[in-house]
Structure formats: C-alpha cells, structure tokens
Amino acid sequence: MPHVDTHCPYCALQCGMRLTGTRVTPRDFPVNAGGLCQKGWTSGELLRSGDRLTTPLIRRDGELTPASWAEALDLVAAKLRELRSSHGPDSVAVFGGGGLTNEKAYLLGKFARVALGTSQIDYNGRFCMSSAAAAGLKAFGADRGLPFPVTDLADADVVLLAGANSAETMPPFMQHLRGAELIVIDPRRTPTAELAALHLAPAPGTDLALALGILHAVVAEGHLDKSYVDLRTAGFDEAWHIAAAWWPERAERVTGVAAADQRRAAAMLGEAHNAYVLTARGTEQHATGTANVSGWINLALALGLPGRAGSGFGCLTGQGNGQGGREHGQKADQLPGYRKIDDPAAREHVARVWGVAPESLPGPGRSATELLEALGQERGPKALLVFGSNVVVSAPRSRRVQDRLSALDFLLVADFVLSETAERADVVLPVTQWAEEDGTLTNLEGRILLRRKAVDAPVGVRSDLGVLRELATRLGQPAERFPVDAPTVFEELRAASKGGTADYSGVTYDRLRAGEALHWPVPSAEHPGTPRMFLDRFAHPDGRARFVAVDHTGPAELPDAEFPLQATTGRVLQHYQSGAQTRRIPELVDVVPEVFVEVHPDTAARAGLVEGERARVRSRRGETVARVRCVASLRPDLVFLPFHFPGEGRANLLTNPALDPVSRMPEFKVCAVALSKVDA
User: Fold this and answer.
1) Pairing relation of β-strands 63-66 and 57-60?
2) CA angle 278, 35, 268 (to 5 degrees)
3) What is the CA angle 102-584-129, rounded to 5?
4) Domain 130-316, architecture per CATH
5) Does CATH place domain 4-48 in 2.20.25.90?
6) Is 239 in contact with 547 (CB distance < 8 Å)?
7) Packing angle, helices 102-110 and 486-497, rounded to 10
8) CATH number attached to the domain at 565-677
9) I want to staple 381 with a disulfide (CB 3.0 to 4.6 A). Which of 40, 79, 93, 580 is the partner?
10) How are beta strands 4-7 and 16-20 bridged, if at all?
C-alpha cells in the first residue's frame, strides 16, 4: 500500500508522520526527529472512528435526524437570510478553530465578512495565544510564536519555561532541550518540572511579580546587557522604574518563591552563553496575561536575548494551526496577512483581492468570550455558525455558554463527530478531518507545512471549503468567489497576505511539495523564507524592541472564607483540548477515562476526602465532580483539573471569564474554589 508523508493533527509542533492507509509511523522531521507522543501514534484511529458523522442532521421535534445535504444547506441559508433581513448582518456570528487549515481559516473569514457581512467572527485561538500575541506585537512589532527554528534550542545552555508543561503537552519537543539547564516556572511539580535544574513554584496568579523579582536580580547582580539595551531597545528606564521596587525578598512575600532561587535563576540566565525564555499557557491564560508575557519579554530583553543568534524569546503555540489561524482572518480584528481590520490600507488591499468595495467590509467585532456572552441577547447575534470548535467544553464559565447557545434562534455546527456543542445544534454538517484532504498549516516556529491527503473521506462527508461555497452561493455570492480546492484558495491567500506582516506571497504548493522549509515572511517566490526573525532589526519603524512598563496586580479573584483554595487547569499527555478527538480513542481513554482533581494530601484530609473518592469542586460560577488524586508535591492552597472532559466533569464550569484588557484572554488558570465530599 502506498504511503503519504504528512503531519500530526494535534499540537502546533506538527510532528512529521507517515500514513499507510490509517497506520501511523513517525518520520524524520526537524521538530520531532522521528518521535511521536501517544496521541500522535494513535491518531490514525480517528480516521476509522465509529463516531464519524456521514450525513447532515436537522433538529425536528427536538431530535437530530438525518437529512440530505440539499435540505440541510437550504434550511441554513433560509435561516440566515431571514435573520439578516430582520436584524441586520451582525445578527449572524461565526466561531472558528485553531485546528482549521490556513485555507479554511482564510475562507471562513472571507465568508463572514463578504457573504454574511458580519463583524461577529472570532475563534478559539483567543483562548490560547492571544496574550502572547499582544505582548509580542508590543515588544517586537510582530507576533510569531517562535521567531527561530525549534532546532536552535539544541545549542542552548539555559532555557526558562514559564507556564509550560511540554513533557506532557508536546513530548517530542523535549529532545531539543536535552543539552540545556531548565528553569521551570509552574505552581505544580509537573513532569517538565521534574526535569528542571531549578523549579520555581509561584502562587497562582503571581507570575508577573516573579518576573519582576528575577529582572531586579538580573540588574542588581550585574547581568544587564547594557550595550544591547542601548543599541537595540527602547523603554528600559520606565520598565526598570517598576522592577526596581520588586527586590527578590518582596517578590518572595507575594509569590512564595525564595529570593535565593530568584537570584539563582538570574545568575543562570545571565552567565549562560546561549539562553532562551519561553512562555506558554500557564503564564498567559490570565486576566493579566499580556502584562505577564511582557514581564518575561522584559527579562529576555534585559539579558540581550531576542534577535541574537543562539538565544531568544518565544512562545510555545498550543493548537495545531494556532499561528496560521489568527494570521488570515478568523480573529475579530484581523484580515489576512496579520493586517488590522481598521487600517484603511489593509482594507483596500484585501477588498481588492476579494473583488468587493473596501467600505463593504465590516469593522472589528467582539472577542470570543464577549461574542459567546452576547449570543441571544437583545443586541447580540441570533445565529451562530461553529467550524472546528467545541465551546460547550472549552469556553470559560461553560454552563453560561451552554445557556447562551440555547437562547439562539439558530445554531449550525460543522464537525466530523457529534461533539458536545454539535449535540445542541439545529443543523449539523459532517465535514472532512485531517488526513482526508490537502491543506497548509503554520506550526509554532512560523513554518508553513503541507498536510497531505492520505485517505478518502467516508461517503456523504464534504469539506468545510465546499460547505462555505454552497452557503455563499445560496446567499447570492458568485461561486468563483469561494473556491472549493485548497490549492486554489491558497493562491488567493498568497495575494491577500502580500505585503502584510505574515507575508505568504512567496509560498507555493510546489515549493512545499519539494520539501522547502519556508518560515514566514516569504515575500517572493525566490525568497528563502525567514527562519530567524529580528537578527538585524525588530519590526517597529525604528528597528528597536520595546520594554513595556508592567506591574503586578494579581488574579481577578482571590480566595476567601467560602472559597479558600485556588484552582488551575491544564492538559494531560493522553488528551487534547476539549477531548472531542482523543476521547474517541480507546487506548487513550483507558489511561485517563475521566476528569480528576489533584489535591495535596493534607488538603484532601481537611475536606474529608481520600484517594480515588469523588469530590465536588465549587466556584462562584458552578461546580464539577472529579476523582481525587492526592499529590504530595502540590501546593496545599491549589487544586488542578484537566479540561478535556464533558458533562459534570467540565473544568470550565468553574473558570473565571474575567478578561485581559488587551488580548481579551479569559482567566483560565486561576479561580477561587471550595472542595468537599460529593454527599456533603
């Protein structure tokens, strides 16, 4: 049987793999060097899952029942026309996903703004990368998760990981860190922290205070790279004015991290020849997430790391196409090429590519959390179209989200399985999954990849691109404006991105098929790509990076007598995101079949709980029931829950929808909770 070289359907590492039918074997690709995690090894089982949807479903008398494609699409179009006629274009909203290919993300954004005319589009990457993106734009003038290839990390002497548990979330990544001493910032003693030379465990929500304490030590102990700061940055004095007040002993009182360990971290970084500072969701998913990341960027700039060969700052993107998904039009405020939707020149360029008038394009819409909250409200959308996301499990304050979905006049979900969100839809459309069609993705290092078709989709299943064209033509658009062929869509994406920050205009399918390593920007067909950004200058007009003056304020919600503990959430090795994919693979479910809550043994004892017992975890927004795991290394004031599970096991029944004022990121990573026995 012939094989196809392709990429894993899960995280942004986008490991290289080979598919022979549905059998997976790893291949030697730079980011994974022949390795795969357990999810990657078992990903072929998704292609033969018995839960696959193969026919459209329409809700009749309260039940989802099979229908023809023509009937389903006609119904959707009729509902959309009716709502737009009665309530205007913003009565229809679109919610996308960070796993969609570049072509799908691009065409979905175009569909929303041209076929629907709505400003109400955002995507689940808002829950993932938005704080790091906002901080990167402020500091460097451009946002690319890693502005250097992953393989550069192999030469690092020291790597600081802030809020990253890569040993579980992207295990093949860890081989690139084998030669480095690791400093791991995490309130939990994770498998990644177990590998660290120095593990710093701050109280949840105090990441910025710790970054300020380490920055203070860097300057006070003589590790400031003054020549770099003078030549390549701006704003140091303002940032230092704040950090000067955060001597390590003060930071210790707030974070619980010993002042001596803060100084040790500063010395390890300052004395290293090659060093990197990397952030991930643990430090980003806060109502202060942008400021948190700015704090770690300030530390990296003070050490002279960004834009220097062999060192740097970066963010570990989470979702498979979290990078490309936001670059090409799914975000409420962006057009293709990472252009701002309120920039007249950007609107004119994209409108010309699309063949529409610039003034016909809507302005910025609501961010993801705000969009979900507005559903069914008096001034909010009456209909929602969901492509590639499972918001009932993944969004904060998820019972409220469930209620808002119920308040809609119409809900459409396009998915390959009946997710918890699809179960609530009025129409469900069965679409192709990862290995059933060609498409490009952009991994965590800004490398554009071609994920190739390896198997045929089941009879009755259609591509998202085909769905968008069918709906667009029913809404009066010319068919040629919405191509169904991925290479054709990509050709248009190239033109739309040309001249933008994320310029793909020099990328072609032929170059990708030939195996070229193309990291954006790639501004011409002759350009080799940009594996290492900022070596000569940063993307601000003056070429300098910016220190950003930020100060610690703490979490949006503090513990009190009723809710004395803090909860944090995250991933486990065997599952991914909302679990809609991994909960359908027996090998993975056998290892982690249900939600659990990690608790310090003393904390469990005070609540009258023992190992293996079901506990009730309650916050101001809701409660979840989870199996107790006693973990002696956990902070006594903290509990941890994975967020992959549905129903009463949803960790996001608890989480706080408080938003970062810049990125609009919800505060997933800390909320006040109480712990009790289920029968209490």
Assistant:
1) antiparallel
2) 30
3) 35
4) 3-Layer(aba) Sandwich (3.40)
5) yes
6) yes
7) 70
8) 2.40.40.20
9) 93
10) antiparallel
Q: Is the Cβ–Cβ distance between 128 and 143 less than 8 Å?
A: no
Pairing mode, strands 623-630 and 596-599: parallel
Three-class secondary structure of residue 365 per DSSP: coil
* Ordered DSSP codes for 477-542: --GGGS--SHHHHHHHHHHHHTTSSS--TT--HHHHHTT---BSP--STT----SS-SSS--SSTT
Considering Cα of 60, then 427, then 379, then 578, what sign does the dihedral take? Answer: positive
List, in order, residues 6 or more apart from 152 with CB less than 8 Å away.
310, 312, 532
CA distances from 308 to 135, 305, 425, 462, 464 (A): 19, 6, 50, 46, 41
Token pair, residue 474, equals: 């029913």
65-127+321-484 has which fold?
A: Rossmann fold (3.40.50)
| Among the listed residues 510, 530, 532, 511, the one whose alpha carbon sits nearest the alpha carbon of residue 522 | 530
Q: How far apart are CA 358 and CA 260, in angstroms?
A: 57
For the chain, state the CA radius of gyration: 24
Q: What residue ranges of the chain have pLDDT lower than 50?
A: none
Residue 298: in which H helix or E strand, if any? helix 289-302
Q: Could you read off the pLDDT of 610-626 as tens digits, one per residue?
A: 999 999 999 999 999 99
Query: Any idea what DSSP says for residue 462?
Result: B
- The pTM assigned to this predicted structure is 0.96
CA distances from 412 to 54, 58, 60 (A): 16, 10, 14
Coil, strand or helix at 177: helix
Using alpha carbons, select from 6, 56, 12, 11 the residue that is nearest to residue 26. 6
pLDDT at residue number 319: 87
Residue 1: its pLDDT value, please? 74
DSSP string, 428-443: EEEB--TTSS-EEEE-
Phi, psi for 263 (deg, rounded to 5): -70, -35
Take residue 12 and report the two structure tokens written for it. 């942004």
Distance CA 584, CA 580 (A): 7
Q: How far apart are CA 215 and CA 280, in angstroms?
A: 19
